Amino acid sequence: MNNLKPTYEEIDKAVRQMAALIKDLEMEFGAVLALARGGLIPGVILSKALSLPLMVANYSSKRGNGDDQDHDNVLPVYENKKPLLVVDDICDTGRTLREVVDFYSSKNVSVYTAVLHFKNINVPPIFPDFRWQTIPRDSGWVIYPWE
Q1: pLDDT score of 93
Q2: 3-state secondary structure labels for all residues of the chain
Q3: How far apart are CA 81 and CA 119, in angstroms?
Q4: What is the pLDDT of residue 95?
Q5: What is the pLDDT of residue 62?
Q6: Using N-to-C axis directions, what is the helix angle for 40-49 and 8-24, rounded to 10°?
Q7: CA of 127: how far to CAs of 12, 101, 120, in Å?
Q8: CB atoms inside a 10 Å sphere around CB 134
Q9: What's residue 70's pLDDT?
Q10: pLDDT, tens digit, 9 for 90 and up, residues 105-133
Q11: What residues contact 122, with CB distance under 8 A and at least 6 apart?
């Protein structure tokens, strides 16, 4: 298995391409919610490119296998009538994004998701609306420059 090591330049270009796609689709969002830590950099780039407010949540699924020791898992209140764009670096098990989407959906908020990488699995708990790359489930680690 080879690890993926995207550069800051590749990530910046990818997120700006996502922003251009969103603009071309004429989708209007009320805010970008970046999931810390991995979603912070793509979230900031998207919020600036789309001229949207940035919200941050320190959130990670407690059912996942990742590092969930320092996440408070409190999601911010969102009262805007426009859809919310939730951003993370990777969707591998999909549990974190599913929990966040379910939380806001239960509050009658329309939610869309954007990730840099989506690990393709047979029946994902969530399929990101926007993604830079879909990678095989058995691929190596994605090592982001901020890690």
Answers
A1: 84
A2: CCCECCCHHHHHHHHHHHHHHHHHCCCCCCEEEEEECCCHHHHHHHHHHCCCCEEEEECCCCCCCCCCCCCCCCCCCCCCCCCEEEEEEEECCCHHHHHHHHHHHCCCCCEEEEEEEEEECCCCCCCCCEEEEEEECCCCCECCCCC
A3: 31
A4: 87
A5: 63
A6: 40
A7: 22, 11, 9
A8: 13
A9: 56
A10: 999 999 999 999 998 775 667 899 999 99
A11: none
Q: Which of 75, 72, 13 is nearest to 46 (CA)?
A: 13
The parts of the chain modelled with pLDDT lower than 70 are 1, 62-71, 122-124
User: Of 72, 81, 79, 82, which Cα lies nearest the Cα of 35?
Assistant: 72
Tell how far CA 23 is from the center of its chain. Answer: 18
Question: What is the model's pTM?
Answer: 0.91
- Could you give the CA distance from residue 143 to residue 138 in angstroms, rounded to a whole number? 15
Gyration radius (Cα) of the chain, Å: 14
